[in-house]
Amino acid sequence: MPVRVVLENTPTPSHVSAVTPRRRSVQSCTLLCAGQAFSGTQNVSSLQKDEAWRVNVRLQGCDLEHGYLCGTMEALNVPMADTPVVTFWEGEIVDARNYTFFTGKWEAAPEDDIRHWTKFTSFSPLLSQVEVDGGKSMDLSNYPYIFMRWKEQYFVNVGTDCGLTIAGFYYVCFSCSDGSISGFYYDPNSSPFQKLELKATNDGRSGFSFSSYELQ
Amino acid sequence: MPASRPSSDQILHRLSSSEYEIKLKAIREVKNQIIGNRTKKLSYIKLGVVPAVADALAEANADSDNGANLIVQSTAVIGSFACGVDEGVRAVLDAGAFPHLIRLLSVADEKVVDAAARSLRMIYQSKLAPKFEFNKEENMDFLLSLLRSENENLTGLGAGIVIHSCETRDEQNILCHAGSLEKLVGGLDGSMSQRDASLESIATILKNNPGAVSKFVELQNGRALRSVIELTRDRFSRTRLLACLCLICIKNSSSCFLQDIAIKTKLIYILLELLDDSGQVGEEASFAFSSLVAGKEDLQKLAFEANAIDKFYNHLQNPELNSKRLEGIFLALGDLCSKLECCRSRFMSLQVLNLLINALTHDEANVRTAACICLKTVSRSIKNLSAGYFMNERIVIPLVRLLSDLCTSVQVAALGAISNIVVDFTPNKSTIIQCGGIKELVHLTKSMDSSLRLNAVWSLRNMIFLADKMCKEAIFMELTASSVATLICDPEPSVQEQALALVRNFVDGCMDCVEFAFAENGIILDAVGRQLKKSPRIEIIIQGMYAVSNIASGNEFHKEAIMQMIFPQAESGPQSFLSQYLQSNDSRLRTSAAWIIVNLTAPASPGAFGRIAKLRNFGLVAQIKRMASDPCMDVKLRARVALGQIISFGDS
């Protein structure tokens, strides 16, 4: 979800260090598949006022083998926008195979990473090992939570001159059990720890529905 | 200068003359006139000159000087007729010259042998040449005698026979076991023509044959392989290309060969450089490049780093490119963009798409097909699909037109591209609907050709992914419930799978969409149920199970219909498919089965209590309890949710 622009130059993010692709990727979870939708809020409160934007997320692609997923994020009541603002984001799944807990780019130092990951209670059992090596020696394939970073790539329905920025990224924790998502937006130039809270939605159904596509 | 019209009475008469001088002069005259002149060849073939020359050949006596002279000249004429003109090859074969030429290979006169071998090589360059039977012992003896000969024309003929007739794995193995590779390797040190013939026939024997490749790389302690690698630096471009093709056959047979990054990079650079050749080598280089990088992410990455996309793009900008070149370049770009986002991104930023769009309306079917294949792989980018780069009239209109192309391979390729670009994550597919795309796609789902049916259903399945109700209704009205049911029971399993995935997507979305499954007295639901009970294929069952699960997430009526499908009789009968799939060895299938239970027992639905009682009576609750400790996390979590819902109604 975009946030307000703060007019400062941001340096180019560094590349993530390569991880030897030997470990098992995280197990597939039907609630984390293309087509699944989530809705909730992002708290954008500042010292001046409390504020939360309604947010809808739709997963458009998920490739566990490569630790990749992507989708769109729609912010509904953005004060400075006439319409809901939709962004396309791409995600890195922390699987100790393609990506570790250490971001290594986007202006996030290991201390920033730890500071954000520890906000998730489900991260506590992993903390000591992550402090040692970023978690690259862990087997996360059976862990009931999936940790990710979501980085917005472009605005889908508004121009870049909309007064909003997508410079930061989200630390995300997904619960495989009920599909709920917690996240914290990180951008050194924005309010810290803006919390994202989403729940799986079901289009008014009495249960869960799953569609699918397959690219050729 | 106007060419003289050949007169049948004159030339035919002289060719059949009993006087040696007249006959020889006539044969020479024909030879001089047809050399490199296709029109003249065709005109003489029409006149019946070929049988006359073949008769002269058959009648001549190789043991006399005059006879040998006649044989050499008439053999040269026959070879010339066969060179590059299929009609000529056909005429030569019809005239019965072929066995005479074979016979002449064993005469004592070297000039006669040379002439016959050259002529036979010409014939073997054509697809019309008779198939050489490698499984006959005497034939193999003959072939090996050619390959081990000191005479370059005979070894060249041997190589030509291999290139022409070796097609199957069995034939490759016969040649391999008979020691032909050892003989052909000898030719790698010979003249340019010998090197090229050897390289091409080695590649023919090695292609897609890991056993032959293993034998070759060990030949002479790896010296044979080193010779081929060395020839990639030859000064002749055709030799470099053929050496590359040999190495590609080796590389493609097993990932353990030619792992060295330097060789892989070298192959890429050589092939990209060969594209600059203005002749046949340049044409073939892009096809060789395709087979080198197809399906191999590491090679695609190296090619990307070698600026391959820019290089192909530069060639594409030449408006004079012939159709073979265009086809090869689009296929190469297609393979290059098949896996890596960085390649697709470069393709898009260079705006190669504009040139590709032009190629969609090219006169040659092969070019149209290649352009569609390229578009299919470029559009595998979710990032670009989501940005809407492909769903626009400039692309969709010509693609939809190609759905009624006269050539089936074009139609299939166009469907491949369409099935990707319709995944644009927008709810209304107005662009494709407005240009008549649905009508064309639905029409092709009824095709006699199974690949057209498969790809048409696949396109529709992708098209209704996340589509709104209006879009789904438009497709459903055109397609009809009975056609969907027919496709679910299609003779081709792959079509069944896509048809069930189509139903799964139809009944996803808003609650009203579930009704699609109940149209025409539930004909679709019945077909889904039949497949779930009888299909042995996991992929088909998974799609069917999710279709059922999606329906089970509907209202009371929908849930009860699914209960009726699972338990058709009130009392216990044969084990239900649901019970069977809950115990499947495939975790994906167990997951889908668990979701059905989750949806049927959703606590907010009024009939949940009754359904739970029924599930318990049939032993499914006990099964779910066991699954709460399933080794697959997804199954385990769904089972626990289902169990939690069941317990909320009171567990017994």
Automatic annotation (TrEMBL), chain A:
GO BP terms, alphabetized: negative regulation of gluconeogenesis; proteasome-mediated ubiquitin-dependent protein catabolic process; protein catabolic process in the vacuole; protein targeting to vacuole
InterPro entries named among the record's database cross-references: GID4/10-like
Upper lineage: Eukaryota, Viridiplantae, Streptophyta, Embryophyta, Tracheophyta
Family recorded in the similarity comment: Belongs to the GID4/VID24 family.
GO cellular component: GID complex; vacuole
Signal peptide extent: none
Protein name (database record): Glucose-induced degradation protein 4 homolog
Domain of life: Eukaryota
UniProtKB/TrEMBL annotation, chain B:
UniProt-listed Pfam families: Arm (PF00514), HEAT (PF02985)
Gene3D superfamilies (alphabetical): Leucine-rich Repeat Variant
Keywords: Cytoplasm, Nucleus, Repeat
InterPro entries: ARM-like, ARM-type_fold, Armadillo, ARMC8/Vid28, HEAT
Protein's UniProt keywords contain Repeat: yes
Domain of life: Eukaryota
CC terms in the record's Gene Ontology section: cytoplasm; GID complex; nucleus
One BP annotation, GO: proteasome-mediated ubiquitin-dependent protein catabolic process
Designated name of the protein: Armadillo repeat-containing protein 8
Organism annotation: Vicia faba (Broad bean)
